[in-house]
Amino acid sequence: MSHNQSVKEFHPRVHNAIANPQIRANFRKAMDGLMDKRQQAFPSDDELERTRELAAAIRLRALAKLPELLEKLEANLTAQGIKVHWAEDGDEACKIILDICQQKKAKSVIKGKSMVSEEMELNHYLEKHGIEALESDLGEYIVQLAEETPSHIIMPAIHKNTDQISDLMHEKTGTKKSRDVEYLTAEARQQLRERFEKADIGVSGVNFAVAETGTLCLVENEGNGRLTTTVPPVHIAVTGIEKVVENLEDVAPLLSILTRSATGQHITTYFNMISSPRKEGELDGPEEVHLVLVDSGRSNIYQDDELLDTLRCIRCGACMNHCPVYTRIGGHAYGHTYPGPIGSILMPHLVGMDDAKDLPSASSLCGACGEVCPVKIPIPKLLVRLREESVAGNSDHANSVVKGRGVKRNRVESLVWKGWAKMHKHGGLYRTGTGLATVFRGLVPSNLGAWTNCRTAPKLAASTLHQQVKARQQEKAAQDKNQGEPS
Amino acid sequence: MSARDAILNRLRHRRDGALTAPVSDFSVVTEKQWSPAEKRDLFQQKIESVHGEVHRVRHDNWLEKLKHLLAEKQVKNLLTPQKAQVGLDVRAELSESDIALLAYDQPIEGWKAELFSHVDAAITDVRSAIAETGTLVLWPDADQPRLMSLVPPIHFAILDADQLKNTFHEVITSERWGATEKGGEGMPTNALLISGPSKTADIEQTLAYGVHGPKELIVLIRE
């Protein structure tokens, strides 16, 4: 993928981000605010826990019935006049959307926020084929003006402060330089309204696709999603195959926990539920609606009981808001579409472990992500699983569905761990080994690679714990013997 | 094999075997219930917390209040339904006033530029409302199309206090929004939940209103 920089650059990117006080400050401020707001949105621990249980159960039920629900969704949408397309990967999905654009002789596409379209790099693809794709979510618009990618899945421009955005809008669109957010927002409204009027096609994502009624649900605050799905004559929705839920009533608790977990809002301004194109007699809405269902590795994740939990995600971003690593390095340092903890367990499947091998290790395993996840994805456990996969040999996870499994395997390291395991299984070997280690402790080098970059090398004790205990026992026995004799 | 069949095939022949669906306990949602007065207060508190403007009125004085608000907001023209009772009442009341009453009487393609640039405000009724989240529920139709509640800078919504439900879940189940095969009504082209005016916090987490939709949402609760 073109904008996903080489993995080799992961560490330098992290170093650059950490050395950049502006990035550190922007993320710290934003994440502190978001954590605070989330906490206020859940005043009752009991209600939070029970809603999490319910949300997790709803998502699991949807996954348990995934193939039949997808077919039901397709059948209902088709009967209601929405055309359903299936794509194995991002490239196929881009091609499907381009075909629709070309059939409609579309010149300009206006977009509502969609992380799946980021994942498949739709904007670049369309532009390569002479079709202008304009982001209309304010954050996405800013990121597009800056020719960057989103640094957060909910707040794409969170890495920039007001001054930086003011300078950017001044340079690219000719607005006045101003710290007045109302002014900047009003200017963006004006610029985008003109584009909404003229756009040939609207492209949006989907938050929940309801199989029971054939309904596409979109969550948003700005209204650009509603404009995107109402004003242009054609609407194309694009989403991952895991976004389906069974019943309409399932949507209520999911929506509630999504918005509260994401930004601490009790609900977003708009919840937009679309079930058909414009019907006869109706005066607005698109004449044509399409849904593109994208797999891109999701059906592989689906094969594995443990990895399956990854697909429960409702994309709230709470895991990144609470991640000490994300807060310090920001979203771009990860170098992939989805940053933070969810990105680290998702990207290895979407792009292969070869390209995402550093992500599962980009975590301190503090557990915050798992604790706040609204659908109770055991993210730390999955990070450890993917670390195992990244160094797996032929016999470990032999049936694995992880592409690029074993990419980080190092022969020396695996031999060391094999020896370690053998030693711990055999008492004699353990005692001999640790005994030898204390004898030769002076030979332990002070430079142990990355470990000693910011730590001093550990010093081995002069005698092993076993030796010390033995010595104490002998001493005690001798004392007891002495006490037992008459003086 | 088509992409569709290949994907469904992989999902059906799962390596680790078929999955069992867990039971979903909705009690955490269904136990949320308030008295009519509590619902009204909660609705008002929640929608005001996101910059919505609420006025409590009576059935016999709401038009007076509306006229007052229109004057205060310097509304020169008002997009008004032609069939809904709210629209008929407003039309009767304001026919003599100097506020121009506009009608959404043709497909959007015919008057997009005018709607986008020259309409000051729109008024709609609502289907129901949600106390827990301070939310209006709209099912737009030919008389009150989708863009009415979105494009003009001010949206007036008329809500009757007895339309208030406890939760979104109650709206879906009690109004039988579900599939027709299960006895539901089926879904309209577009169903909307609206909770406050359009807003964004995309510039350094600072709230700004009216980014794409209305800058002001004014709710008259008729009791």
Question: Any key phrases for this structure?
Answer:
heterodimer, A: 487 residues, alpha/beta, Rossmann fold, 3 domains, six-stranded parallel sheet, four-stranded mixed sheet, 22 helices, 10 strands, 50% helix, 10% strand, elongated, disordered N terminus, B: 223 residues, 22% strand
Descriptive notes:
The complex is a heterodimer of chains A (487) and B (223). Chain A has helices at 10-18, 21-41, 45-64, 66-79, 90-103, 115-119, 122-128, 138-145, 162-173, 181-198, 224-230, 251-263, 298-301, 318-321, 324-329, 340-351, 353-356, 368-372, 379-390, 411-425, 427-439, 465-484; strands at 82-87, 108-111, 132-135, 201-204, 208-210, 215-220, 234-240, 244-245, 270-274, 288-294. Chain A is α/β, with parallel strands linked by helices and 487 residues long. In chain A, strand 5 and strand 6 form a beta hairpin. The termini of chain A are far apart. Chain B has 223 residues and is of the alpha/beta class. Chain B has a single domain (34-222), classed as NagB/RpiA/CoA transferase-like (Rossmann fold, 3-Layer(aba) Sandwich), CATH 3.40.50.10420. Chain B is built from seven helices and twelve strands. Chain B has helices spanning 3-12, 27-30, 36-48, 62-72, 85-94, 112-118, 168-174; strands spanning 53-57, 77-79, 100-102, 121-125, 128-130, 135-138, 154-160, 164-165, 190-194, 199-200, 208-209, 216-222. Chain B is globular, with a radius of gyration of 21 Å. The model of chain B has no long low-confidence stretch (mean pLDDT 96). Classes of the chains: A alpha/beta (487), B alpha/beta (223). Chains A and B meet through helix 2, helix 3, helix 4, helix 8 and helix 10 of A and helix 1, helix 2, helix 6, helix 7 and strand 9 of B. Strand 9 of chain A pairs antiparallel with strand 9 of chain B, so a sheet runs across the interface.
